Amino acid sequence: MMSDRLDGKVALITGAASGLGRAVAERFVAEGARVVIADIDEAGGNWLASALGPNAAFVHCDHTESAACDAAVAFAVAEFGKLDILHSNAGAPFTGPFREIEDETLERVININLFGALKMTRAALPALERQAAATPAGASLIYTSSLQGLKAKPNFSLYTVCKHALVGLVRSLSLELAPKNIRVNAVCPTITETPMLAHFLPGMADDPAEAMKRLRATVPLGRLPEPSDTASAVLYLASDEARMMTGVSLPVDGGQMAM
Ligand SMILES: NC(=O)c1ccc[n+]([C@@H]2O[C@H](COP(=O)([O-])OP(=O)(O)OC[C@H]3O[C@@H](n4cnc5c(N)ncnc54)[C@H](O)[C@@H]3O)[C@@H](O)[C@H]2O)c1
What we know:
The protein starts with 9 loop residues before the first strand and ends in a 7-residue tail after the last strand. α1 (about 20-30) crosses α8, α3 (about 65-80) packs parallel to α4 (about 105-135) and α4 packs parallel to α5 (about 155-175). It has a seven-stranded parallel β-sheet, with helices on both faces. The chain is α/β, with parallel strands linked by helices. It contains eight helices and seven strands, in the order βαβαβαβαβαβαααβ. The protein has a single domain (about 10-195, about 225-250), classed as 3-Layer(aba) Sandwich (Rossmann fold), CATH 3.40.50. α5 (about 155-175) links the parallel β5 (about 140-145) and β6 (about 180-190). Bound molecules: nicotinamide-adenine-dinucleotide.
């Protein structure tokens, strides 16, 4: 379905070669945006860019590297002329008992799930500020946190630290950037069927089918979200319809936060 809720806007999405980021890239292009897919997955990113056509472009970017973040933003501006939206979405799973986490894992998980988002945000701000000054619609930053950014469960501590940190970032940065008309929000999806799901299931039950059954039973609506459900939430936050929304971390959870 084609529409124009993001007509004329330019977005950079990290981790857009797969899963939730890919669903957001597809929806953004369908809604009239031009999209830069920034990912370490060269094959997946290039495939998606060519599937989406001239309104999408892929840039190889490891968002844990400051220089790569700067280069991705420069690429977006060179390719499409400006930047209205950063969706900082790239992340990686981790589950396991806290006392067994080694330094290498500690640093890697925090690097991918938190430092990457911070570095890409810093890299994008000059372009977002320029664009926000040029249009009454302003600019927008959206993070993919998680329901683990608002709630917690055992054996997810390291991932939970990072996702809670993004919710804190949204609150502080939204206040800092409000005078510049840059809105800052997050989506907080519950477990969703993407390639990442396979990493989470063993933490919940030995049998994957049993883990899925238990997961569904925790959702008041009785079903898990699709990637498109998160894409719908990101689309809303990115669109001008959300012009009064900032500092919000929005659950996409079928009612779990209400419990
Ligand atoms: N799937 C879920 O259940 C779920 C739930 C809540 C939140 N999330 C969050 O959603 C986001 C996307 O996850 P997903 O489920 O789509 O997973 P996914 O594995 O399908 O996609 C993650 C993407 O990020 C990319 N990536 C990884 N490290 C990167 C790096 N250093 N720089 C740039 N790109 C990198 C990967 O190549 C991949 O394309 C993550 O932040 C994740 O924590 C996922």
